[in-house]
Write a structure and sequence with these properties.
Length: 321
């Protein structure tokens, strides 16, 4: 396993992180025993960063992960989130100080631990910037001083609000999803300079662009414009003809990022863990990568509107519905 330092936290994290959302049946039912075996296999093979949220499976992922980590808590770095509890506004989100305090206690109970290593605001684009900065973050910093959480971070899709908070607040980590992969590398231009300047730990999620970069292709609910999903199908077909799974190339590409400390990949089965581990430390074939990126180029770096309008990235397209 390859380990990196997560910014100024000093935490040594595996470059591949265990995304625990599938444990909450977010993408279909799973066999809990197989999920537990996947967690054990991951830990035994060097994966030490586990990311979850109350939102995943509407608390089910946290409950299952807490059970699966019995006797193993000291071997891993545990990250969870606060603020998102449902699918849509207004009921699915609550960034109030009162809810943060309640949420951390609930997560600690479900995860069967007395501290969270990395405590993150879940999808800040669904909150008003003023509340996030003046209410949500201050109470999270208070929890940090109390020792209930070790580090405070933010997560989200639009890069503009992430960048602003990195530049103006003393956070420890930032998680960006779907903004650094074969389809979209805009994270490098917008977020990386700010993150490097403040030594904030960087976490990259959705290296498969929410399953678009897979043999099966994007799910029906994928928000990207149709032309993007059609373009990636051509790239997947090209890889297939070369005897390569586009998911492997996508993971190799993401894992090779110089500044990202950990890339999160959703897993719920041992075979998932094995397949993902096979790409750690493997450099993507340069000729294949060049050709695939040429195929994708006409639809590359197209991102959609997400969250409240005040948090949209400039140039974002409407979500596909």
């Amino acid at each position: 396993m390859i380990y990196k330092t997560l910014g100024k936290t000093g935490l040594k994290v595996s470059i591949i992180g265990f995304g625990a959302s599938p444990l909450g049946a977010e993408f279909g039912q799973i066999v809990p025993e197989e999920g537990e075996r996947a967690v054990e296999y991951a830990i035994d093979h060097g994966i030490n960063y586990f990311d979850v949220s109350p939102y995943y499976g509407r608390t089910l992922a946290e409950k299952r992960l807490g059970e699966f980590l019995k006797g193993k808590r000291d071997k891993i770095i545990l990250a969870t989130k606060v603020g998102r509890y449902g699918i849509s506004l207004p009921g699915g989100f609550d960034f109030s100080a009162q809810r943060v305090i309640k949420s951390v206690e609930e997560s600690l109970q479900r995860l069967k631990t007395d501290y969270i290593d990395v405590f993150q605001i879940h999808d800040i684009e669904f909150g008003k910037r003023k509340q996030i900065i003046e209410e949500t973050l201050p109470v999270m910093f208070k929890l940090k001083r109390q020792g209930k959480v070790r580090f405070v971070g933010i997560t989200g899709y639009p890069l503009s609000p992430l960048k602003e908070i990195v530049e103006t607040q003393e956070i420890d980590t930032v998680l960006s999803y779907c903004r650094y992969n074969l389809l979209d590398t805009t994270m490098d231009d917008i977020l990386i300079p700010a993150v490097k300047k403040k030594s904030v730990g960087l976490i990259n999620a959705s290296p498969l662009h929410m399953r678009a970069l897979t043999e099966k292709g994007a799910p029906d609910w994928h928000p990207a414009p149709k032309k993007v999903l059609q373009g990636v199908k051509k790239a997947a077909q090209f890889c297939r003809e070369k005897g390569i799974n586009i998911s492997d190339l996508a993971l190799q590409f993401a894992f090779s990022h110089k500044y990202v400390a950990v890339t999160l990949v959703g897993m719920s089965k041992v075979r998932h863990v094995k397949a993902n581990l096979n790409n750690v430390g493997v450099k993507p074939d340069p000729d294949l990568l060049k050709k695939v990126r040429e195929i994708i180029k006409p639809v590359a770096n197209i991102y959609w509107e997400e969250g409240l309008p005040e948090n949209y990235d400039p140039g974002a397209t409407e979500k596909r519905t």
